[in-house]
């Protein structure tokens, strides 16, 4: 019976949809963008067919075409992700997080965002705009580096050891504050794991600081980061208020995720192996 079902599944597949899935998979692997030539090679179709496919997907914002002609995943996919049924993913991360982002922005007057790992970058998947005079805005769909920024450092700190080592091989400098020395970054990540929050001291953009805290799932795996960016120059009392609000929001989202009913089979999955970064890390500097 199983063999018959598999044969039927193969028989009733739609080739064009499978090819479209291959396009999405290619763009997922190449966040910097893929050319038409790259897509033609991946899906093994004519250039004309690929162009028509990409043009159609672009019209519905499933893919985005840059002025240079390269293609990346489009923002419409974020909207779809926000409505994934709880029975599929065990919980709807964006639906759970958005009210907490709204609350933190109302409380602080600052913009807030939710960020997740996405290939070799992090991706902003939800945000709330602040109403303060100097509030900084964040937009869903932004891709940012792991090593420069509070949210990125949170997600990097709690990554698997092999992913940490791979990402430390290329630490691009964005400002004078960007950490580009792997040893210093390892110390920073160890400190972040110890305190369970991170601060950006203008490492990704001059004049912009941020506080971030981790969001965890049923298995205590860090799956996202809540963060609030703010302009430099605010007093330490204000920074402490931001830190407290960010940590509270991240914990509230974590609690809501854990109170959601896991989908069948997910509760029995084995957790991902824990990284062992601490064993190679020197004692972190006190801040």
Uncertain residue ranges: 263-287
Tell me the helix content.
40-55%
Instruction: Indicate the radius of gyration in whole angstroms.
Output: 21 Å
User: N- to C-terminal separation?
Assistant: 63 Å
Hey, roughly how much beta strand do the residues contain?
15-25%
SSE arrangement, N to C: HHHHEEHHHEEEHHHEEEH
Q: Oligomer, anyone?
A: single chain
* Tally of helical runs: 11
Question: What is the number of beta strands?
Answer: 8
Q: Sheet bearing the most strands, described? A: 6 strands, antiparallel
Provide the spatial order of strands within the biggest beta sheet: 5-4-3-8-7-6
Features:
two-stranded antiparallel ribbon; alpha+beta; globular; six-stranded antiparallel beta sheet; 16% strand
Structure description:
With 287 residues, the protein is of the alpha+beta class. It has helices at residues 2-11, 15-29, 36-43, 47-59, 76-82, 86-89, 93-108, 150-157, 161-167, 182-195, 236-259, and strands at residues 63-65, 71-73, 112-118, 121-128, 143-144, 198-201, 208-216, 222-231. Helices cover 44% and strands 16% of the residues. The strands form two sheets. The protein has a six-stranded antiparallel β-sheet with strand order 5-4-3-8-7-6. Helix 7 (93-108) packs antiparallel against helix 11 (236-259) and helix 8 (150-157) crosses helix 10 (182-195). The protein starts with a helix and ends in a 28-residue tail after the last helix.
């Amino acid at each position: 019976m199983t063999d018959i079902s598999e044969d039927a599944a193969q028989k009733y597949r739609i080739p064009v949809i499978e090819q479209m899935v291959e396009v999405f998979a290619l763009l997922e692997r190449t966040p910097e963008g893929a050319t038409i030539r790259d897509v033609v090679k991946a899906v093994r179709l004519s250039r004309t067919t690929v162009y028509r496919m990409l043009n159609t997907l672009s019209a519905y914002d499933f893919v985005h075409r840059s002025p240079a002609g390269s293609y990346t995943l489009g923002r419409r996919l974020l909207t779809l992700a926000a409505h994934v049924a709880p029975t599929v993913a065990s919980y709807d991360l964006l639906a759970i997080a958005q009210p907490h982002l709204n609350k933190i922005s109302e409380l602080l007057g600052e913009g807030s965002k939710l960020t997740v790992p996405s290939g070799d970058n992090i991706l902003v998947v939800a945000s709330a705009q602040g109403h303060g005079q100097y509030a900084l805005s964040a937009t869903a769909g932004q891709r940012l580096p792991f090593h420069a920024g509070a949210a990125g450092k949170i997600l990097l700190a709690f990554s698997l050891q092999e992913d940490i080592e791979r990402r430390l091989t290329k630490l691009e400098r964005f400002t004078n504050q960007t950490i580009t020395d792997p040893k210093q970054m390892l110390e920073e990540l160890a400190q972040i794991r110890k305190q369970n929050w991170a601060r950006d001291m203008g490492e990704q953009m001059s004049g912009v600081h941020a506080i971030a805290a981790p969001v965890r799932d049923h298995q205590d795996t860090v799956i996202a980061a809540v963060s609030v960016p703010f302009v430099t120059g605010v007093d330490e009392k204000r920074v402490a208020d931001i830190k407290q609000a960010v940590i509270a929001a991240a914990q509230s989202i974590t609690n809501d995720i854990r109170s959601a009913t896991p989908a069948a089979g997910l509760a029995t999955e084995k957790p991902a192996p824990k990284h062992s970064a601490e064993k190679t890390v020197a004692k972190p500097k006190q801040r």
